[in-house]
Write a structure and sequence with these properties.
Helix content: under 10%
Largest sheet: 8 strands, antiparallel
Strand content: over 45%
Structural class: mainly beta
CATH class: Mainly Beta
CATH architecture: Sandwich
Radius of gyration: 16 Å
Order of helices and strands: EEEEEEEEEEEEEEEEEEE
Distance between the termini: 15 Å
Length: about 220
């Protein structure tokens, strides 16, 4: 049973082509051999895109990608499944499988912010697919649900908690605080702080006045 607190100040930061990205794990030119992932979770990027900036066509394969738009409008174009505009609150799950090419660009007259998570699938070479849903304005809800992921046992709870949160019964849980304050043990986490919990299922987290959270339960 362990809890590791990862304050916002420890995130890697990339600034390029007008966009700013904060990385929870080793990514691109940022490498820390002790921080390459947490269970099947291999990336959690907090993306800040000025209008018209983002990522032109680029490939992925053998990744489960979950994107949660927090502000603005993100235009997602997939090589096989077309274009869709994701607005604040929208959640897009992409199974890259045997390979996709997609782009992600801000289509908003102002900043677009989104949180994107990458996970390793259990098996390589699956059939690419997309599914979308919306995170609730109130409450913390499993947005994977019946859609599922190619990573067995993974669940993602998103939304705004206004009361005590019970840690899911999972071997590993990753908590990311988007906004607000959450008490984890004897520590207080604020915006952009994270915690990695191992065998802590059932622990109660204190929410102080409301907090927007991303809570991964990992098999």
């Amino acid at each position: 049973m362990t809890i590791e607190i990862r304050p916002a100040s420890r995130r890697f930061r990339t600034v390029t082509e007008g966009r700013e990205t904060f990385h929870a794990f080793s990514f691109g030119g940022h490498y820390d051999p002790s921080n390459t992932g947490f269970g099947s979770l291999v990336a959690l990027n907090d993306e800040h895109l000025p209008s018209g900036t983002g990522y032109d066509d680029h490939p992925h394969r053998d990744l489960e990608i979950v994107t949660w738009v927090l502000e603005g409008v993100l235009r997602h174009t997939d090589s096989a499944l077309g274009t869709r505009d994701l607005v604040a609150g929208d959640v897009l799950r992409t199974s890259a499988g045997s390979g996709i090419v997609h782009s992600e660009v801000s289509a908003y007259d102002g900043r677009t912010r989104f949180l994107q998570t990458w996970l390793r699938p259990d098996e390589p070479g699956g059939v690419p697919s997309l599914a979308s849903t919306t995170a609730p304005a109130d409450g913390l809800v499993d947005v994977i649900g019946d859609v599922g992921l190619g990573t067995a046992g993974a669940r993602l709870y998103l939304g705004r908690a206004t009361r005590e949160v019970v840690v899911p019964d999972a071997p590993r849980v990753h908590l990311y605080v988007v906004e607000g304050t959450v008490g984890v043990g004897d520590r207080s986490l604020g915006a952009d702080d994270a915690a990695r919990l191992v065998d802590e299922g059932g622990r109660r987290l204190d929410v102080c006045g409301g907090a927007t959270l991303a809570l991964w339960a990992l098999g």
